[in-house]
Structures are given as C-alpha cells and as structure tokens.
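User: Reviewer 2 asked us to show a designed sequence for the structure in our supplementary figure. I'm pasting the structure tokens here. Could you produce the per-position amino acids so we can include them in the response letter?
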C-alpha cells in the first residue's frame, strides 16, 4: 500500500514515517512539502491514501483536497493543528474522509487510516441482488451505482455506503448512532458532524440532477430515512 503525506513540517513527516515503519512496515510513504507538489505526485504515484495538512505554504490544503476530489475517490485524511468544529466541517465539506488534529498518536493515526480504507472498500457491501427501483430512483447493488432519471449520482464510497444503509432499511428511520457505527465505525458514534456533512453532500449531488428531489429525510432527534414518498407521489 502507498500513502502520500503532505506537510511542510519535517517533524510531522518524520513522525508519520516512524509510525508506519514501526507499526505498518508494508506501507510505502511518499512525501510532499506543499500543495502543488502533492497534486503532481498524486498523478505519478497513485497513492491509496492521502494524509493532508491544511496549512501549506503555497495553496490551502482545503483547495488541494477539493482538487483531488475532482479526479479521485482515494481516501483523504486531513491532518492539522486547527481543532475547531468549524474547521472540521470545512475539511469534510471539501471532500475529506476524516480529520485528525495535531499532536496525534501513532495509534490514532493508524486507526483513522484503517477506518477510511475500510469505508472505501465498497465491494464489501456489493451483492448480486436485484436493483432497488422506485420511480426514477435506482440503487444498483451489483455495480455500486445510484441514479435518478437515468443519471448517475457521483457518490464517494462513504456517501454510497451511507445511502446503501438507508436504502436497505427503507422505509424505516435509521438512528444516527447506528449509521455512524455502520458507515464510519463504532469509534465514530459521537461524530454527528460527519453524518450531517455527508447527508448534505448527497443531497447536493442529487439536487444537481433534479432540484426537486431530496433523497434523505431527517427525522428530528432520531435519524434519517430514504425519502422516496415524492417519487411515489409522482407515479400516482
């Protein structure tokens, strides 16, 4: 496996390198000191995971994250000294899969990377069962695609996994803690902002296809459900 670590602080790069050397020696670590180098190296090295600092000397790590998301679904873990909730939300909104604040422990870093890799393995959720279809909404379990009116929604693996669990439980509400545990892992059950941001991102992607379709309904204080009543109303 190959990891691209992007940080202008040589001490951080050294700490990440020691972490993998001691606890995951099979990992090949590629280093980039700034955002432009990271974007160039990504195309050359094709890493499996990106560890990305927010405060880079040339362009913002958030901008790097956004540009990477335009070309890849590779997991991105933001690594930064900024620990406010607003900063975390900004990172997730630009496409980051996880967020770690400095200083960090080796165990925390490894746990987060393994978690994003697990979430990116959407094949574990794939089955040969028939597609779920209601009106213009189609969830294809075999090829991991979701579409509306025949147009595929460009979902990331995490977004796909989230919608997968809502679809499998339709028309029931799925509790927030249950979704966090199933999609992110039990260690994330208190990270409600992760869930809120990804729900917003899914809604935005379907709105780009049809602004009148909102695929997720919020059951206040409980959780979320797949919102297909509007498609049923259309069919009547």
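Assistant: Here is a per-position design you can include in the supplement:
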């Amino acid at each position: 496996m190959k990891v691209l670590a992007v940080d202008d602080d040589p001490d951080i790069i050294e700490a990440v390198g020691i972490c993998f050397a001691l606890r995951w020696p099979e990992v090949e670590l590629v280093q980039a000191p700034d955002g432009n180098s990271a974007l160039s190296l990504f195309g050359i090295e094709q890493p499996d995971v990106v560890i990305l600092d927010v405060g880079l000397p040339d362009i913002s790590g958030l901008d790097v994250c956004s540009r990477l998301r335009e070309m890849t679904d590779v997991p991105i873990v933001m690594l930064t000294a900024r620990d406010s909730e607003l900063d975390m939300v900004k990172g997730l909104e630009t496409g980051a899969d996880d967020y770690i604040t400095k200083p960090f422990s080796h165990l925390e870093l490894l746990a987060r990377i393994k978690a994003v890799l697990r979430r990116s393995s959407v094949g574990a959720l794939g089955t040969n069962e028939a597609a779920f279809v209601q009106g213009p909404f189609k969830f294809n379990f075999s090829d991991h695609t979701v579409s509306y009116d025949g147009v595929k929604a460009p979902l990331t693996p995490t977004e796909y996994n989230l919608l997968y669990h809502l679809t499998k439980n339709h028309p029931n509400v799925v509790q927030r803690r249950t979704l966090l545990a199933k999609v992110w892992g039990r260690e994330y059950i208190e990270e409600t902002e992760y869930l809120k941001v990804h729900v917003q991102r899914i809604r935005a992607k379907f709105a780009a296809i049809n602004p009148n379709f909102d695929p997720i309904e919020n059951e206040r204080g409980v959780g979320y459900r797949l919102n297909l009543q509007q498609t049923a109303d259309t069919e009547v």
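For the response letter, you might also mention the following. The domain at 2-120 is CATH 3.40.50.2300 (Rossmann fold). The mean pLDDT is 91.
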